[in-house]
Amino acid sequence: MTNSEQKPIVKVRHLKQYFNEGKKDEVKAVDDISFDIYEGETLGLVGESGSGKTTTGRSIIRLYNPTSGDVYFHDENIAKLKNKHLKDFRKQMQMIFQDPYASLDPRMKVKDIIAEGIDIHHLAQNSEDRDRQVADLLKKVNLNPEFANRYPHEFSGGQRQRIGIARALAVQPDFIIADEPISALDVSIQAQVVNLLQDIQEEQGLTYLFIAHDLSMVKYISDRIAVLYKGKIVEMAETEEVYNHPLHPYTQSLLSAVPVPDPELERNHHVKEFDHSHPFKEGEELREVKPGHFLYCDEATAQKYQ
Ligand SMILES: Nc1ncnc2c1ncn2[C@@H]1O[C@H](COP(=O)(O)OP(=O)(O)OP(=O)(O)O)[C@@H](O)[C@H]1O
């Protein structure tokens, strides 16, 4: 994709999500982040546990009411929309959750789980049409349509995650937030689910925000990567650029902690420590230091790269 072809589907501006605001236990889970997600791309959102990845996803999709800031979806500001109007947008944005065991109601049949959105948005003309849509969705995620009448406990983790993907696809969204969709799965299954998500993306021109703490898999699925640290984006660029030329010390430390498959290289491989005691300095903000490469830094540092 060249710059001129990149059309944002989601624009996040100065988004803040604070919990227990003004109280002693206030948490600035998301602290003034701004970024775009382009149509048809996968933006990987990475960071360690507690950095605010899930909160970012949930705030964009309005599972939380943002403390402040704006979220534009197809140029409409949805950050302050009220319930009735929000429903239409919910149909276009879906979420796939981390834990395929917790996210599927064990008392519901697979067909009712998948058809949840179809029912809410009245997308089936009658029960035959509903069944047909469910069968098509099961086929799309490479599951046997005959599974429709079974319950979640009859399936493996990978199969359950496919059911979760079918549920998300049921309302024909154009934007999906995948919140660590593979981290609860066996390594052998992870690639299958990633490949499925990529095939579906190509077929349907979907846009993904792919949340991950594991940097090795996110590399293969993401066009661009945003690195989140303590509720702030500290670096964002095309995937190759982030992996080959990381500029922020936190990104450098994250990448240096990824195991190297070659034992020869591993011997000379040092984990770069990041000073967590003074992570941010006065005057720093996310600045475009090279075309398409954003770094959380001060003006003087940004000048160095121009
Ligand atoms: N509902 C909530 N109430 C209070 N604090 C919360 C709530 N949800 C998240 N937090 C806090 O906000 C911070 C960010 O959490 P979040 O779950 O977004 O991080 P994460 O990067 O997704 O982590 P993980 O990889 O562990 O899921 C954490 O300090 C967390 O404890």
From TrEMBL:
Topology in the lipid bilayer: Peripheral membrane protein
Localization: Cell membrane
Record-annotated ABC transporter domain positions: 10-255
GO BP terms in the entry: peptide transport; protein transport; transmembrane transport
GO MF: ATP binding; ATP hydrolysis activity
GO CC aspect terms: plasma membrane
Protein name (database record): ATP-binding cassette domain-containing protein
Top-level taxonomy: Bacteria, Bacillati, Bacillota, Bacilli, Lactobacillales
